[in-house]
Write a structure and sequence with these properties.
The structure holds 2 protein chains of 2 kinds. By secondary structure, chain A is of the alpha+beta class. Chain A has one domain (about 45-325). Chain A has 8 helices and 11 strands. Chain A has helices spanning about 1-15, 25-75, 95-100, 110-115, 125-130, 190, 265-270, 305-315; strands spanning about 80, 95, 150, 160, 170-175, 215-220, 225, 230, 250, 290-295, 300. A 5-stranded mixed beta sheet of chain A has the order 9-5-6-10-11, with helices on one face. In chain A, a hairpin with an 8-residue loop joins strand 3 and strand 4 (about 160). The chains are: A alpha+beta, B alpha+beta. The interface of A and B includes residues 182, 251, 263, 265 and 268 of A.
């Protein structure tokens, strides 16, 4: 055995007549290949992310068309959720905007099965929440953990789902929290968007302009809470549990950089997008998120946008001036 | 010869690196906006008809002569209605001076409902507070329904 190694080494020393690569050549080749791979891989990932972003934009565009068709039928956008009786919600039960939108996104079958005379958390609606609707889901969102229970959010009791509920990544923005600007957003006349609880708002009531008012934002990954890009299964969540949830809507609060603090004004909580999905706009797209505006357009806004310019887009009648081309 | 070259390269690289590191440090160091005043801790409690208000937003609007240079100070109440004010950092309190206080709660307050609208505006809330040096432990804000 030792003799064999000795002979081999001796053979190379003799003049290296054996054909093949030297170690240096091999290393150089491997080096070049790994550099090329390193250049290529991020490009592939970028293309993946861009494709997901476009699918997401297409989803929001479809929701925009559906909302406008709904508006055409009923002369108003749907409320983010119904909680009380009115001519538009005779039974007075909790019903969400996504359930009302199903006939306008080619889901007449779902609408036929959904019963507005009971709350969304009662049967048959509770079982129906397991039906996955693609238009309500962004492809960038990681797989959700299997969740079949939800804590109580009065008047809704704690829930146990008979089937695994299907989530949603899109939510109505109801307006802006007063803490963003306690004077400007002091009352409902200025701090509301076009879709909030029990709202009946039509296009003529969007005084800031339909192209400057957001209807639907991304709030991806719920019911699992994320802060930054980190999943936090330890944090409880009772909102936005599934696509039938009528109480998933929220107002813009603003959060600090790591998403642990919310709603204390633009100095302490300056981030508008992608800090946390705890009732704030959030997506898994790199560097921003998609937004559906009341004119039906979908825009990608960068997450460096300031809290105040973004808040201006979340209200329909506060009269703020904002130049969208800056973001 | 080669050592000389090395020394020269190093001479060029060191200031370059130092410059690269310094420029963003300087850029971050200079804060925009008016200078920040020293703050003093402020805490209190919000009661409506005698019951603590959960998740209410308490805002101290500065009313002094240089009020425009100072952001409003805010706090949110916990389950017992207690709050601590924050201005520039969490729970840092508020600068010395006079304030008009507004208190608002979201609709979603369960049994309490939304607070009376008068408490949402500094002009009509009728609550004024002077923040002094040291810790300010304020007496509870006793909110009531407006008399008809």
């Amino acid at each position: 055995m030792f003799a064999g190694i000795h002979a081999c080494a001796g053979g190379l020393r003799d003049g290296g007549r054996r054909p093949g690569f030297t170690l240096v050549e091999l290393l150089v080749a491997i080096g070049i290949i790994s550099i090329l791979m390193a250049l290529l891989l991020p490009a592939v990932q970028k293309v993946h992310a861009a494709a997901d972003r476009m699918v997401c934009q297409s989803n929001l565009r479809q929701l925009g068309i559906a909302l406008h068709n709904y508006h055409g039928d009923r002369q108003a956008f749907p409320a983010s959720g119904w909680t009380m009786a009115s001519p538009r919600n005779p039974a007075g039960k909790y019903v969400g905007w996504r359930a009302l939108l199903t006939p306008y996104i080619e889901q007449d079958g779902v609408r036929a099965l959904y019963d507005t005379s009971v709350h969304w958390w009662e049967e048959p609606n509770l079982s129906l929440s397991a039906f996955k609707i693609r238009v309500f889901l962004c492809p960038s969102t990681p797989d959700r953990p299997v969740v079949t229970t939800a804590g109580p959010k009065p008047p809704r009791p704690a829930l146990t789902f008979p089937l695994v509920p299907a989530g949603t990544d899109y939510e109505a923005i109801m307006g802006v929290a007063r803490s963003v600007d306690p004077i400007l957003y002091a009352t409902a006349a200025t701090n509301r968007s076009a879709m909030f609880r029990n709202s009946v708002i039509n296009l003529n009531q969007i005084y800031d302009g339909a192209s400057h008012t957001i209807l639907v934002v991304e709030c991806a990954g719920r019911p699992l809470i994320y802060r930054g890009r980190v999943a936090r299964p330890d944090l409880p969540n009772d909102q936005g549990i599934c696509w039938t949830d009528s109480e998933g809507g929220f107002s813009l609060d603003g959060s600090n950089q790591d998403g642990s603090l919310q709603g204390l004004g633009p100095i302490l909580t300056p981030r508008a997008i992608n800090a946390t999905n705890e009732n704030e706009p959030y997506s898994f797209h790199p560097g921003g998120a998609n937004f559906l505006f009341a004119d039906g357009s979908v825009r990608y806004l960068r997450d460096t946008i300031g809290l105040l310019p973004f808040a201006a887009l979340c209200t329909r009648s506060a009269g703020e001036l904002v130049d969208l081309s800056d973001y | 010869m080669s050592r000389n070259l090395h020394a020269r390269v190093r001479l060029a690289v060191v200031p370059l690196l130092a410059g690269l590191l310094l420029v963003p440090a300087l850029a971050c160091g200079s804060r925009q906006g008016p200078p920040r005043k020293p703050t003093h801790p402020v805490n209190g409690r919000v009661l409506f008809e005698g019951r603590p208000v959960h998740n209410a937003l308490v805002v101290f609007h500065p009313t002094g002569p240089d009020a425009a240079d100072q952001p409003p100070s805010m706090g949110k109440t916990d389950h017992e209605g207690r709050f601590q004010l924050s201005t520039y950092n969490l729970h840092d309190g508020a600068p010395v001076g006079k304030y008009a206080v507004t208190i608002t709660a979201e609709e979603d307050q369960g049994t309490i409902g939304e607070l009376p609208a008068m408490y949402a505006s500094p002009a009509t809330s009728g609550i004024t507070i002077e923040v002094r040096e040291g810790t300010n432990a304020l007496p509870p804000f006793q909110l009531r329904r407006p008399q008809e």
